[in-house]
Each structure stands twice: as structure tokens, then as C-alpha cells.
Amino acid sequence: MAERGDDGMYISFDGQKFIDEAAADSRNSDAAAGKLSGSGGGGFLGGAAGAAMIAILIFGPIIAGKLVGLIWGLFLKLGMFGKIVTSLLMPLVTFFILSLVIGLTATGHMLGMGKNGSDVMIMVMFFIPPVWYFLWHYDTVKQMGALVFSQKIGKFCQFIWWGALASVLVGYWFKPAQQFIAIGTTLAGFIYYFTATKPYAEEAAQNRKASGKRSLNGLKILVMLITVGITAVFGVVAVVENSMKGTQAALELKENLPDAVWVQPRTIGVYSKADDRSEEITRLDRGTKVTPIDAVSSFGKVWLAIEINGQIGWIRDAYTREYEIDY
């Protein structure tokens, strides 16, 4: 309803005066429905901006992948220098893929991945992909050329990114399916890529043979085996060191258990065993106060035992603080 001024005129929302009350009400109604030029324009622009953001979310990483693939392919025109540079970039590419799949979709939780798992993955990522690429895959990428390689990488990113988005959406309603979708689509992406690039690998091998160059496959396999062996040694050393540190930290904590601890992250799981792959009893929100009654180490992780709902549950010590959390 339009308000009536002291002069008897009816005033609309924007201060315009009307003799007829119905005319003032009509203008107010048009404004509420967004039919006026200013309001309607704002609504259209807001909708367009929202649509653009959704498009960037869905297609942005795929387009970025194609651009990276194109630039990567252009590096191969630099001969041995390009081969070395692209080989050294392989750990970065591997890190990005693993971070996306494991971080965004919480796949590491399903795999029980703690510091041991992350350290081993770092060893694998920094040793194996660059050596494999340098010895074998470089010739395949060079055979494809920048444009074809860019298209293959874009399709590969489509599997990875859309799979990650799908896993997050499905996981919102059915959490157990999230990790399986992420892993499944990632494997599908790798299967697609290696299947799609196989003809180029075969063509590169034929060209090398026709030119009289030796394949040196025996030497390549030996180098790869040595690389895998070195990776395994470093991985075992990292696991042993982490386990020893975790055990020592748990013993020290057990001897000096705090009277209370507070949950640090937004929410954490309470498990039936000192293992985040075990049954989840309940969840605790940020700032929840609990009293630890025991401490153990498992796979490099330190766990605290608490009593909750009449039973013993386990939470990660790394997710707690010995002081009250400020909201």
C-alpha cells in the first residue's frame, strides 16, 4: 500500500507522488516484480554473472588443461631443452591431479592416508613420473604435436574435473559413494588417455626404427626399475621415521594427558578404533570439549581415546587443541 502524504498525494517507493492511490500501488508492484528498468537490469546482470560463474566452474579447468597442453606441446619444439623442462614439470602435474582427487573428494580418508601415505606419494610423484616421461612418453607427445596433445589433455581433465564435481554432489546425499566416483572417473581418465595416445606411441616407435635409432628398451627398463627401487627405499625410510615419531609422541602424550581438549576443525569424526577407516560413531563440532583417557599411535597418526555415549571412541590428536577455541 502506498503511503499518503500531508498534502493528500500518494507516495510510491521512490518518492514519486500520485493523485490516484492505484497508480502509486502499481508502481510499487512493478518494482517488486523487477519490471522497472533499473531493477530489471540489475536482476538480468545478476543472473548473467551467476551463469558465467557456473560456466567457469564447469568448463574452466578443462579449458585451462587444454591451454597447458598447448603450451606443453610448444615446449617440445625446443629439442632436448624442452624435453628436460617438460620432464621436470611432471611432478607438478602429478601433484595437481592427486591434490584435486584426494583433497576435493576426501579420497585420502577412505585410503586411511596420513603422513605415511602422503610422504610415500610425494616420493612416487617426484621420482617415477619424470623418469617415465623422459624415457618413454616424450616421443609419444612429440608425435602427437601441440594441438592433438592439447585436445587429449582437455578430455583427460574433463574426466578428472567432472568426476570430482559429480563425487562432491553425490557425496552431499550419499557420502560413501563420493570416493568411489572420484577414483572411478580418475581411472577412466587415465584409461582414456593411454588408449587414445597408444596409436601415436606405436607410430613414434615405428619412426624411430625406420630412422635406424636403437630403442634401448632394455636400458630404459633397467633405469625405471632402479628409480622404482630408490623410491621404495625412500618411502620405507619415511614410513619408519614417521611411525617412530608417532609412537614417541603418543607415549609422551599418554604420560601427560591433558585434562581436556577442544575440537579445532569445523567437524571431526569419532571412530570405533584408532583408524579413520573404522566405523564412525559420531561427529564432533568445532569447539566441543572432550576429556582424553588414552593415547596411541597408528600408521604415524596420534589418536586420543574419549568416552562418548557410553562407549570408547577415538579422535585424531592433530585435530584438537589444549585451549578453548574462539568462534
Q: What is shown here, in short?
A:
This protein is of the alpha+beta class and 327 residues long. The protein has helices at 21-33, 37-75, 80-105, 107-110, 115-173, 176-210, 217-255, and strands at 3-4, 10-11, 17-18, 261-263, 267-271, 280-285, 289-290, 292-298, 301-308, 311-316, 320-321. The strands form four sheets. Strands 1-2-3 form a three-stranded antiparallel beta sheet.
Verbal overview:
The structure is a single chain. The chain has 327 residues and is of the alpha+beta class. It has 3 domains: 3-33; 57-215, no CATH class; 225-327, Roll (SH3 type barrels). The protein contains 7 helices and 11 strands. It has helices at 21-33, 37-75, 80-105, 107-110, 115-173, 176-210, 217-255, and strands at residues 3-4, 10-11, 17-18, 261-263, 267-271, 280-285, 289-290, 292-298, 301-308, 311-316, 320-321. It has a 3-stranded antiparallel sheet. The protein has a 3-stranded antiparallel sheet with strand order 7-4-11, with no helix packed on it. A hairpin with a 5-residue loop joins strand 1 (3-4) and strand 2 (10-11). The chain is flat and about 95 Å long.
